[in-house]
């Protein structure tokens, strides 16, 4: 969920959300709030269509309706896929369990038949032996078929579980990406930064962090609308990717809102500063155009702060130092890079 409404706009939407929630039977919980917020903010057309349809059919909406709308139109894709994977895994395990149960039952019957056959073999009356041998042969055939069915079920289940594992891996990776820019989101950034710090540094190298912020981004949204704001965010991600091509191990992230980060492991600070400056220059050269007329309607700039990992640094101390350098860039006129 990507919400970019200003504080004033979101407060206006909040008042409308509370009014709508009061008219229906659903609980005042985050699920209900998210459904009404996205509908009234006009940012989720599919949800709005489904919500209006539900109201037309049911009149007043309850918790079940809100949960269905949330799962279908608001929940992030990874949440939906995780539920689907869980259902498929449950189905796979149920199939294995049923097949194993059938094989166990057949094995039990076969065991009983073998016991009766053993008793018949001990009996002096040979006439009673023949039916037990016939029955044992039939049960052995059934047992063989049941065991083969179980073997096929296990092989099939192994393949399905391998597919599910791959799907879970993909979902976990997707969960760490910003859907708008396809760079790491905040969670992915935090995990990557922690892993870099935990890995230590070579004696002659260090790790660097660049924090970047789009200048006057609120003005972009207020003047040109949120669609253009999203295009600016997307363009920022594209520029960052283009500027770190060939930088092994570099990670890009959307830290939050209009703020971005570049993690450069085993990189001298002058190289990190050069990367930041390259991004700044390429962003400044961008021209956002009206897609219909091709008229240039917007240019924008970024400010950046660069720092390197110091002895004893934790994620918060490193980020604070890079943010401080970024703040200096803002204070000194924006559209510049500052090292700390």
Topology, pairings included?
Blueprint: H1 7-22, H2 30-41, H3 45-58, H4 63-73, H5 77-122, H6 129-174, H7 186-198, E1 208-214, H8 217-224, H9 226-243, E2 251-256, E3 259-264, H10 269-285, E4 288-289, E5 296-298, E6 302-308, H11 315-331, E7 337-339
Parallel strand pairs: 6-7
Antiparallel strand pairs: 1-3, 1-6, 2-3, 4-5
Helix pairs in contact: 1-2, 2-3, 2-4, 3-4, 5-6, 8-9, 9-10
Provide structural commentary:
By secondary structure, the protein is an alpha+beta fold. It has 3 domains: 7-76, no CATH class; 78-174; 186-339, Alpha-Beta Plaits, CATH 3.30.70. The chain is 64% helix and 10% strand. The chain contains 11 helices and 7 strands. It has helices spanning 7-22, 30-41, 45-58, 63-73, 77-122, 129-174, 186-198, 217-224, 226-243, 269-285, 315-331, and strands spanning 208-214, 251-256, 259-264, 288-289, 296-298, 302-308, 337-339. It has a 5-stranded mixed sheet with strand order 2-3-1-6-7, sandwiched between helices. Strands 4-5 form a two-stranded antiparallel sheet. A hairpin with a 2-residue loop joins strand 2 (251-256) and strand 3 (259-264). Helix 8 packs across helix 9. The protein is elongated, with a radius of gyration of 31 Å. The mean pLDDT is 82.
Number of strands: 7
CATH homologous superfamily classification of the largest domain: Reverse transcriptase/Diguanylate cyclase domain
CATH topology of the largest domain: Alpha-Beta Plaits
Sketch the topology as an H/E string, one letter per element.
Answer: HHHHHHHEHHEEHEEEHE
CATH class of the largest domain: Alpha Beta
Counted up, domains total 3
Q: Helix content range of the residues, please?
A: 55-70%
Instruction: Characterize the overall form.
Output: elongated
Q: Please indicate the percent range of residues in DSSP E strands (runs of 2 or more).
A: 5-15%
Largest sheet: 5 strands, mixed
CATH architecture of the largest domain: 2-Layer Sandwich
Oligomeric category: single chain
Output the strand order for the largest sheet. 2-3-1-6-7
Regions with pLDDT < 50 over 5+ consecutive residues? none
């Amino acid at each position: 969920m990507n919400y970019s409404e200003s504080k004033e706009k979101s407060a206006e939407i909040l008042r409308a959300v509370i009014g709508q929630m009061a008219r229906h039977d659903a609980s005042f919980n985050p699920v209900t709030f998210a459904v009404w917020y996205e509908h009234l903010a006009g940012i989720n057309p599919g949800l709005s269509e489904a919500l209006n349809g539900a109201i037309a059919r049911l009149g007043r909406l309850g918790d079940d309706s809100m949960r269905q709308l949330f799962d279908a139109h608001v929940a992030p894709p990874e949440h939906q896929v995780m539920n689907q994977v869980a259902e498929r895994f449950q189905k796979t395990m149920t199939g294995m369990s049923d097949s194993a149960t059938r094989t166990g039952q057949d094995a039990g019957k076969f065991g009983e038949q073998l016991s009766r056959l053993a008793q018949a073999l001990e009996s002096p009356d040979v006439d009673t032996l023949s039916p037990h041998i016939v029955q044992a042969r039939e049960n052995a055939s059934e047992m063989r078929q049941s065991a083969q069915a179980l073997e096929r079920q296990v092989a099939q289940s192994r393949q399905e579980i391998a597919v599910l594992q791959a799907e879970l891996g993909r979902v976990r990776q997707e969960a760490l990406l910003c859907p708008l820019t396809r760079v790491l989101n905040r969670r992915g950034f935090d995990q990557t930064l922690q892993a870099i710090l935990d890995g230590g540094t070579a004696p002659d190298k260090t790790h660097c962090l660049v924090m970047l912020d789009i200048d006057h981004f609120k003005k972009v949204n207020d003047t040109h609308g949120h669609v253009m704001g999203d295009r600016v965010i997307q363009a920022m991600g594209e520029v960052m990717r283009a500027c770190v091509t060939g930088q092994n191990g570099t990670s890009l992230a959307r830290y939050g809102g209009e703020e971005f980060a570049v993690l450069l492991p085993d990189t001298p600070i002058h190289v990190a500063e050069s990367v930041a400056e390259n991004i700044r220059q390429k962003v400044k050269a961008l021209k956002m155009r009206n897609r219909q007329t091709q008229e240039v309607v917007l240019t924008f700039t970024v400010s950046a702060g660069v720092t390197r990992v110091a002895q004893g640094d934790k994620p918060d101390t490193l980020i604070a130092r890079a943010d401080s350098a970024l703040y200096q860039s803002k204070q000194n006129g924006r559209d510049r890079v500052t090292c700390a």
